[in-house]
Amino acid sequence: MAVKPDTESRGQWGSSLGFIMAAAGSAVGLGNIWRFPYITGENGGGAFVFVYILCVILIGIPLLFNELAIGRLTGKNPIGAMKIASKNKLWMIPGIMSVVICFMVLTYYSVIAGWTVGYIITELINIPVDFEVFIRTPEYIIPLTFFFMVITILVILGGVSGGIEKASKLLMPVLFILIILIAGRSVTLEGASEGIKYYLQPDFSKIDGGVILAALGQAFFSMSVGWGLMVTYGSYLPKSSNLVSSGLWIGAIDSFVALLGGLMIFPAVFALGLKPDEGPSLVFKILPEVFNQIPGGSIVGAAFFLLLMVAALTSTISMLEVPVGYLIDEKKVSRKKAAWGVGIAAMLISIPAILSSIDGNVFNTVTMKIGSISKTGWFDIMDWTFGTLAVTVLCLLFAIFSGWSFKTSELVDEIAIGSPSFKKKLFFGLSAGNIWAFFIRYVCPIVIGLVLLNLFGVFGAPETGG
Questions:
Q1: Nearest-CA neighbor of 464 among 213, 104, 261, 228?
Q2: Closest by Cα among 183, 202, 234 to 26
Q3: Do 94 and 398 form a contact (C-beta atoms < 8 A)?
């Protein structure tokens, strides 16, 4: 399949570094900084970290290669890519799902990002905030959410190299600096050693099926695979780029940030005698208390929530770019009209997610039941439906497509263009490309299937996902 991307109208990454920073920024999100620590806390600390790293290497990276290869091979957004790659119109479904998922997740993810903006302000001026009261005050949350969305739109307006790449080259180093500084402050607190020990010292007796499935789920959701994000970002890559080294860097950066996220949180939590398995409330309820009890806490707290905002922004940029890229490719809409149109629509649809925190209204009480799964509130329903279930199904469809419907050898050839060693025989007459094809065809679908079953509680308590 020979496809020549229209780089003049679509845009293209200006450098490999710019692409890696943008793609890593897409993968690095709130899930790394708030979800990874509390999932680790709930699953026994260091043993979970060990299993998680294995899952990233064996499952996350192969799936990442898959989406990047599809994107660069076709030079299109997910819908356009599936249209080119298959004559069977049914395979348009994953492409359509990608665009819908990115847009719908953007509508509530931006609300969480708005919370981080509010907490930056309250930490700086050192005003204690009751999280439950804060999120139930729409006159604060709506403008904060809209403000954050406007920032995202302005980045997208700059295009691929002039907007996304430039922003990522600035934001990702800022993120690294902030997370290292905060982790450094956390590990030097008196009593922090117990937290470090809990976090990094594996207790392999705690590894069971539940821990493995939790690690698989976290690796899966934190790598930005199954969204179509990496198909879109891969479509902006020149043929000369090395997908193998870029993919490995993306996976390494994503995991590095997740691991440092634990070093920010666990030492401080243990130093102050708090519980390490408090769930998502750890970030907005417990950590502000931690910051208040250490010297310079208001500055550290503001820096932490700035870090969260940056992580959220690098993710929302990619979420917005997917539907924008679709409108540019398939509908020939200008980038300006597409960015503002999709962005304003996302702002309006974010309002139900904001109102769902307020007791008594329809968005707070609406309930969805699927088998043993019951979700109440617009926010939770959207997160489970689009940010968890749909992403898992989509990733399964991409793996099945590449492994069984499309010529897997074409994707191996595509990956090998910038990395000839990918097809070089290593041992037993097998190349890295052969091993990757085996994983995409057999291992990944089986593992994703297990994650999908775990979402419905087949193996115990349902996995909460994203």
A1: 213
A2: 234
A3: yes
Non-local (6+) Cβ contacts of 401 within 8 A are 82, 85, 86, 91, 94
Q: Would you say 183 and 384 are in contact if contact means Cβ atoms under 8 Å apart?
A: no
Give residue-wise pLDDT tens across range 408-445: 999 999 999 999 999 999 888 899 999 999 999 999 99
Q: Judging by beta carbons within 10 Å of its beta carbon (0-12, 13-18, 19+), is residue 161 exposed, middle or buried?
A: middle
Q: Is 375 helix (H, G, I), strand (E, B) or coil?
A: strand
Give the tens place of pLDDT for each residue, 76-124.
Answer: 999 999 999 999 999 999 999 999 999 999 999 999 999 999 999 999 9
Domains in the chain and their CATH numbers?
11-349 (1.10.4160.10)
Amino acid identity at 400? I
**Interatomic CA distance for residues 94 and 402, integer angstroms:** 12
Place of tokens 């190349």: 431
pLDDT of residue 8: 54
Give bridge partners of residue 374 from the DSSP assignment.
369
- For 370, the enclosing helix (H) or strand (E) is strand 367-370
- The rounded distance, in Å, linking the Cα atoms of 126 and 15 is 41
Instruction: Enumerate residues 6+ apart whose C-beta is below 8 A from 130.
Output: none
What's the Rg (C-alpha) of the chain?
Answer: 21
Cα–Cα distance between 294 and 305 in angstroms, integer?
A: 16
Minimal CA–CA distance to 78: which of 98, 64, 62? 98
* Torsions phi, psi for 465 (to 5 deg): 80, -140
68 three-state secondary structure: helix
Q: Beta 430-431 vs 373-376: how paired, if at all? A: unpaired
Per residue in 275-308, is it b (16+ CB within 10 Å) or e — as a string? ebebbeebbbebbbebbeebeebbebbbbbbbbb
**Total count of residues recorded for the chain:** 466
The span from the CA of 119 to the CA of 128, in Å, is: 10
Low-confidence ranges of the chain (pLDDT < 50): none
| SS3 call for 428 | coil
User: Strand 373-376 relative to strand 425-427: parallel, antiparallel, unpaired?
Assistant: unpaired
* Contact of 68 with 233, CB cutoff 8 Å: yes
Distances (CA, A) of 444 to 57, 66, 439: 12, 11, 6
Task: Retrieve residue 30's tokens.
Answer: 């709130």
What is the largest distance, in Å, between two alpha-carbon atoms of the chain? 65
For residue 423, give both structure tokens.
């097809």
